[in-house]
Amino acid sequence: MMEAKESGGQRILSKINQFNEKTYSFKKLSNFVKQEIERALKNSKVHILIDELGPSVAAVVKADKGKRPCSPPIRGFAALVIASKKAFSVHKDLSKFCKKHNIAAAHKNTTGLFGFPIKHQHIVYGAIVLEKVKDHIPFGRAGESLVAMIAARLAVEIAYDKLVEEKKRLESEVEQLALFDPLTKIPNRRYFDLILEMEMRKAKGYSRQLSLAMIDLDHFRNLNARHGKKVGNELLVHVAQTLQRNVRGTDFVARFGGEEFMIILPEALNDAAVNVAERIRSAVEHAPLVLKGTGKKKVTISIGVVTYPSSAENLPAFLEQADRALKRAKGLGRNQVIAI
Fold first, then answer.
1. Any idea what the CATH number is for the domain that residue 40 is in?
2. Shared domain check, 299 and 268
């Protein structure tokens, strides 16, 4: 009887640890494990299959090794192992077993199959399948134990990878929430403050111009009260998108709060900033919001423009002057651009 030595599993696990300390890739790791098991168990082919769509019976099982896919019988046998979440060992009447479980007939040289689920905490990620070739000697208890041990270790590796991926996804979501407005999907006040401070330092350090446009939606509160918050939110999104479509590639658009928006215009002289602001004002005026059932709603904005260093020489004064310019635009009748 051909069996792996009792120390074989521990030796392979030790090598896996050394492998991970040097470099990590699940594909490389699975190929490494396959080679080690085949070295320990003669006349055997090892197939490591990962159920990429999760523990679903209908999921497509594919090989995670090399470029050539496993044969239909191996894929079918692995799918059975994954769906049932338990090991199968077949050394006699292989053709009857395949027929019973609707698995394609095994190759004539295949004399036995053993499959063990790659499972961690009741979640099955795939299966390791041993394929006995030509001889009829069973894998033996030691061989099957070896596969079970390796499958458990691979499951831990996959589970860890999943946790790392989930952690990265959650961190990305937190960062998105911290720096972007959830409604309009553009940078929020916090992100704006960071960029404005950075651009102000650059302007001071390199003696460059820096302009800022502060924008307010005209009569927004009246519209919100008349049509409801849902329409108000649609309007904010509509304006945010219009702003982004009409600025330069170097400009930075942010939602400042409520119905106010900010545009940072790096290296823009006052006249150039006014031209950009006027283009934006006109674009918003000529792009009405289309409301279901109520037709089009015309939107206008008022804009205050300031430039460093002519308007102000420090950040607090810069923002204060922008607010003054905006209030003047609103006081003079709205839907216009005023520069200080």
1. 3.30.450.40
2. yes
Q: What is the pLDDT of residue 306?
A: 96
pLDDT of residue 323: 96
In a domain, 154, yes or no: yes
CB 96, CB 119: distance < 8 Å: no
Tell me the one-letter amino acid at 54: G
Which residues have CB under 8 Å from 185's CB, separation 6+?
237, 240
The three-state secondary structure class of 153 is helix
Q: Is position 264 within any domain?
A: yes
* Residue ranges of the chain with per-residue pLDDT less than 50: 1-6, 53-68
Amino acid at 250: T
Domain with 255 in it = 189-339
Phi first, then psi, for residue 236 (nearest 5°) are: -60, -45
Same structural domain, 130 and 201: no
Catalytic sites, residue numbers: 259
d(CA 340, CA 338): 7
**For residues 147, 148, 150 and 155, what is the CA-based torsion angle, rounded to 10 degrees?**
130
